[in-house]
Recover the amino acids of this structure.
C-alpha cells in the first residue's frame, strides 16, 4: 500500500479543534487504498523540523512509490535562530535535502509554496502579499531540479480574492468572546484554518496534484 507523507507547519498539522491543518482533511480526497501519514507540526520550519529529528520517522518509513508533500515557509521567515532560513540559500538547501532523500527512497517529492495568509485591506477586496521571497524560491527550486510543484500560495490567494474578506473568514478560526476557554476575549486568526477551511485547502491540493502525472493515481 502506497503512502502520502506530509511534512510542514501548523497550516498542515492535524492540530486540535478549533484549529485544523489541511493535512488533516486530505484523506477525504485520496484513494481508499492509500495511507496518509501527516507529520506536520505547529511552529516548525525547514530547519527546526530537521534539527528536531522530526523527519527521521518519515525517512525510515518512505518506500518506493510513495509521495512526500513538503510545505514550509510560515516559520522560516521568523527571526529566531532555531527556525530562520534565508530563501535563497538555507531554505532551498533544506527543501532540496528532503526531496533528495525522497528520491533516494524511490518516492516522489512534491514542493509546495506556503499557503497564503488572509490579510485583506480595509476594502475587503484586495489582499497584502505575504511570505516575501519564500514562494518564489520554492518555484525556482522545483523548476531547476524537475520536482513536482504545487503552487499552493497562488491557488489559495486566488481563492481568497474570489471569496473576498467576508466569505474567506469562514475558512479560518474566528471565535467570539467566551466561545472558547483558551480565548476568553475571542480570536480572529488570519493564518490558521478551521475544519471547513482545512477541507477547502485540502481540495486545492488534491485538485492540483491530480493534474500531475507522477501524483494523479493517489487521488480520487
Amino acid at each position: 500500500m502506497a503512502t502520502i507523507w506530509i511534512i510542514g507547519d501548523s497550516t498542515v498539522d492535524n492540530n486540535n479543534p478549533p484549529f485544523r491543518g489541511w493535512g488533516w482533511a486530505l484523506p477525504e480526497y485520496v484513494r481508499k487504498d492509500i495511507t496518509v501519514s501527516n507529520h506536520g507540526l505547529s511552529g516548525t520550519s525547514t530547519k527546526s523540523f530537521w534539527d528536531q529529528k522530526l523527519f527521521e520517522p518519515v525517512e525510515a518509513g518512505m518506500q518506493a512509490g510513495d509521495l512526500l508533500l513538503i510545505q514550509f515557509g510560515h516559520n522560516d521567515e521568523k527571526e529566531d535562530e532555531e527556525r530562520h532560513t534565508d530563501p535563497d540559500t538555507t531554505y532551498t538547501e533544506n527543501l532540496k535535502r528532503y526531496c533528495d532523500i525522497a528520491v533516494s527512497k524511490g518516492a516522489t517529492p512534491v514542493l509546495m509554496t506556503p499557503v497564503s495568509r488572509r490579510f485583506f485591506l480595509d476594502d475587503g477586496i484586495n489582499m497584502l502579499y505575504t511570505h516575501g521571497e519564500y514562494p518564489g524560491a520554492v518555484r525556482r527550486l522545483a523548476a531547476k531540479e524537475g520536482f513536482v510543484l504545487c503552487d499552493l500560495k497562488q491557488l489559495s490567494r486566488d481563492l481568497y480574492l474570489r471569496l473576498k474578506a467576508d466569505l474567506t473568514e469562514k475558512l479560518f478560526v474566528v471565535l467570539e468572546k467566551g466561545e472558547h476557554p483558551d480565548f476568553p476575549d475571542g480570536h480572529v486568526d488570519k493564518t490558521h484554518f478551521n475544519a471547513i477551511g482545512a477541507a477547502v485547502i485540502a481540495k486545492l491540493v488534491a485538485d492540483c496534484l491530480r493534474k500531475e502525472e507522477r501524483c494523479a493515481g493517489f487521488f480520487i
